[in-house]
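It would be a great kindness if you could assist me with a short task in structural biology. Thank you for your consideration; the sequence and its tokens are set out here.
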Amino acid sequence: MHPPLLLPPRADDGAETFAEYRARGGYDGLLRLLRDGTPERLRAEIAAAGLRGRGGAAFPTARKWELAALAARDTKYVVGNGGEHEPGSSKDRHLVARHPHAVLEGLMLAGIVTGATKGWLYLIEDMVEPRRSAEQALRELDEQGLMHMPIAIHLGPPTYVAGEETAALAAIEGQPAKPRRKPPFPGEQGLFERPTTVNNVETLAHVAWIARHGAAAFAAIGTAESKGTLLFTLGDEVQRPGVYELPFGATYRELIERCGGGLRNGRAVRAVLPAMSCAFLPAAHLDVPIAYETLRPLGTSPGCGGVRIVDDATDVVALTLGIAEFFMREQCGQCPPCRMETNQFVHVLKAVQQGKGPGYQDKLQKLAEFARKKGFCSLIEMAAAPVLSAVQCFADDFARAAGPGAPAGS
């Protein structure tokens, strides 16, 4: 197993200081770029490394940078997105709280490559420890004379959609934190109508590592299409909950057993939900390598790594209904198809839970097909993935719950 890139072993649970980060080569990449003045070379390195966004969408980082870098505007911005508010995921807040300098170095590197004149670190209002760590790191940077560009911390509201990149930009502008229609994409027209690059904070920490160690070293880790490492969050279902870093190509069995110490209740794993916005993965696939190219044919994705484990005692109908209710509450209300889909998902699943008979699967499928790609953001697809996969993965459970009565959702 490859040693961690982002979460090196430390004796201290607090924030890594500037001195500690420098001692392990931190800011070498930034200093080299400032000295050599070759941002195009770093963009090529990021492309060669195969780095993809770690916020869940997995978009190639270098391609996102290129959009802003080639935009013909004098004023551009860069945003480090730590607006994590998905239940079950705490990797972004953990990273900023423990290793703020890695995130800030990546933010400045992204700013230089894309031509940004100012940066923001976007967090959520309830992220007390990450904010404190980031503020201290910014003070240290300023004292060391390494603040290449102004960086501000902005605290967004504690809503799920506030973490979507265009919603984060709206929040920074002082507007309601709601997604915007794309195109134009932020790299073309983002903050204050200027080209803006938005990267997840885990992505930025990887940028700092690549700038220091090179594309080849990063690309040597992982699988053919999924390079480097990924941060995972394990909850209280396991013996050792927390945030773990594994290379792509590891398995969910390794994550649960070797990192998490197995299930706390000693029961058997029935399935995993790689993240709340993904499809369920049955236990038969626990030994499939975690990678975009291996999970895609199985209908799911690594997502943001906030893993939920389903054991053989879990009420999967109640679990699925809880997920649907979360998306119904958290949709921002501005897209009618999203409002309709998320509300009707809950209506149909409640009918299943109340034993109101068959017909639920067709209803759920038709709702998802009608609403697909009709929203300003991807919450429509995120809400559908776990629900549609649940009724397939746990077909017998849903059939037993629904019973032989009138069609569910009628």
About this structure: The mean pLDDT is 95. The chain has three domains: 18-219, 230-311, 316-402. The radius of gyration is 22 Å.
